[in-house]
């Protein structure tokens, strides 16, 4: 992984709610650490003190009157703070940054799911990302009905409570991104055990982080 010595690698995992994305972020970060690769795991929205406060606002079911435009801007505000405060310094230090969601979530949820103008969301993402683009995005593709049932088994946050129709539109928008940017966005089947899905994730990252191929971590329960 010669590139990490001078500039780190930025990997993001995406997918509909309940696809097992957060589990795979944890397994991937553990595998990188086991391989001796400097790694930082993050989540969006959040990852900073400011971002976590924004996250609480965004996911609170009590805020069901939130306008789509307000939602978009809150996501971008949290993202900009995360990039400037955490992501850019980590990449400059040569770390592999693994993030649970990033700007593709905003395109999928706010453009695809909420119906905001796609061009507007892209421009907002340019601001929120501060020009930082993931080196590789692994899109965990899964049937939205099965994923949502898993995600809401213990209760639903504000976005999960919006229901299946939203998740179906989100999945369609994610697939648009995979078709439009096949070099960056790699779609994998999220069905199966966490270990099976992790093997697929590793296959999509082997060119960026070859040391992953030698690590077979135990996968925790999907969440």
List the topology elements.
Elements: H1 3-6, E1 9-14, H2 21-34, E2 39-43, H3 49-59, H4 68-92, E3 96-100, H5 103-113, H6 118-128, E4 136-141, H7 144-151, H8 164-180, E5 185-189, H9 194-205
Parallel strand pairs: 1-3, 1-4, 2-3, 4-5
Structure description:
This protein has 223 residues and is α/β, with parallel strands linked by helices. The protein has a single domain (3-214), classed as P-loop containing nucleotide triphosphate hydrolases (Rossmann fold), CATH 3.40.50. Helices cover 51% and strands 12% of the residues. The protein contains 9 helices and 5 strands; from the N terminus they run αβαβααβααβααβα. It has helices at 3-6, 21-34, 49-59, 68-92, 103-113, 118-128, 144-151, 164-180, 194-205, and strands at 9-14, 39-43, 96-100, 136-141, 185-189. It has a 5-stranded parallel beta sheet, sandwiched between helices. It starts with a helix and ends in an 18-residue tail after the last helix. The model is unreliable at 1-5 and 219-223 (pLDDT under 50).
TL;DR of this structure?
By secondary structure, the protein is an alpha/beta fold. 51% of the residues lie in helices and 12% in strands.
Notable traits:
single chain; 223 residues; alpha/beta; Rossmann fold; 5-stranded parallel sheet; 9 helices; 5 strands; disordered C terminus
């Amino acid at each position: 992984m010669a590139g990490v010595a001078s500039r780190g690698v930025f990997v993001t995992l995406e997918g509909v709610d309940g696809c097992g994305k957060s589990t795979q972020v944890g397994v991937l970060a553990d595998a990188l650490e086991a391989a001796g690769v400097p790694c930082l795991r993050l989540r969006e929205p959040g990852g900073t003190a400011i971002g976590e406060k924004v996250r609480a606002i965004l996911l609170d079911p009590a805020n069901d009157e939130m306008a789509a435009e307000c939602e978009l801007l809150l996501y971008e505000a949290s993202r900009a703070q995360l990039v400037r405060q955490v992501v850019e310094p980590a990449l400059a230090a040569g770390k592999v940054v693994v993030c649970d969601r990033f700007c593709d979530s905003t395109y999928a949820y706010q453009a695809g799911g909420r119906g905001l103008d796609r061009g507007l969301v892209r421009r907002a993402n340019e601001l929120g990302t501060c020009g930082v683009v993931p080196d590789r995005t692994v899109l965990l593709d899964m049937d939205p009905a099965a994923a949502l049932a898993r995600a809401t088994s213990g209760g639903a946050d504000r976005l999960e409570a919006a229901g299946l129709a939203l998740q179906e539109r989100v999945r369609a928008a994610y697939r648009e991104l995979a078709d439009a940017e096949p070099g960056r966005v790699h779609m994998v089947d999220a069905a199966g055990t966490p270990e099976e899905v992790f093997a697929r994730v590793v296959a999509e990252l082997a060119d960026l982080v070859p040391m992953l191929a030698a690590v077979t971590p135990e996968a925790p329960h999907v969440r």
